[in-house]
Amino acid sequence: MTSTPTQALAAKLRVLLVDSGREWRGGQAQVHLLARELSRTPGVDLRLVTNGAGELARRARDDQVSVRGVAWGLALDPRALWSLDREVRRFRPAILHVHDSHALSLATWARAWASQAGTHIVATRRVDFHLRRGTQWRRAARVIAVSDAVARVLRADGVPAARLVVVRDGIDVDGVRRAAMTPLNVRAHLGLPPGTPLAVNVAALVPHKDHQTLIAAAALAADRRPDLHWVVAGEGPLRPLLEDAIAGAGLAGRVHLLGYVPAADALIREGDVFVMSSREEGLGSVVLNARALGKPVVATRAGGLPEIAPADGLVPVGDAGALAQAVERALERPEPTALPLEFTAAAMARGVLAVYRSLEDPPPV
What we know:
This protein is of the alpha/beta class. It has helices at residues 5-10, 26-39, 55-62, 78-91, 101-113, 148-156, 173-179, 186-189, 211-221, 239-248, 264-270, 286-292, 320-332, 345-357, and strands at residues 13-18, 44-51, 67-70, 95-98, 120-125, 142-145, 164-166, 198-202, 229-233, 255-259, 273-276, 297-300, 314-315. The strands form 2 sheets. The protein has a 7-stranded parallel β-sheet with strand order 3-2-1-4-5-6-7, with helices on both faces. Residues 5-10 have low confidence and may be disordered.
């Protein structure tokens, strides 16, 4: 007799993680950690479907995660849909856990085509953007919000409260600290004297990260702290615009766009203060890395950032003056705070597993 997905939950929990990300960003780092932790959990049979040529697939394989690499060049790539449909038919997961909107769309179609109506779709929401009309997010068996801020947006946009759970992101503290020991020598690379104060930002160059406010803060701080330099690690479509803004403010030698930096934790360690200037932010898990490395954090009150950044380092969204002053205070009186234990990868995995187990009962209607 063929077992149902709910019966499988009581025996060997089959989980199919799906992520469409073609870049290595915070979301992919979280999927990697979740896949690694769950694959080491007794009673869990886990597979990850993602872009086979991407950094997520490479890192997951290095950690002995079972990866089904697929061709995923477009957001809604037909090749990925075909591969996912085949994997759902073969693996017959009890849980189909998706980590972005594109993965959710493809997983919904694949489940229908494979006639696996009993498979539960769990969807993790990492951004505090509002949902579009007709979205599949409202139909998932469970929606995991990575912060209270994200959960508030989801409730306002019609996700039923009975289906919504908050499980915050976590990090591998020991792994972050090991990675941070890679010698980067960023000051020497930039031709700066040893000991030059550095404000470090790690974020993709996209609108909601609001690097324009960071550049404006650098301009305001220039007279008071002529020795202070601002270093941005990240790539994205706004780079030409930001380069023009830096040049227009006369900050070409003061604000440095490094592009993608694989050793981002080493950059954070070599900096003096970590800065997030976002105007929207689901959680901002890179702040957890900075705190694990003992760095003062200055951040806007965007989205979930107040849930993980120290209160004395928070400033209003879009307020360049407040951002500049907070960075200056952090340089003069660095007061890092310890990282709370709830923000570990192990704690995150336990929370997600509890969500899976909650689906042993029929999903709420």
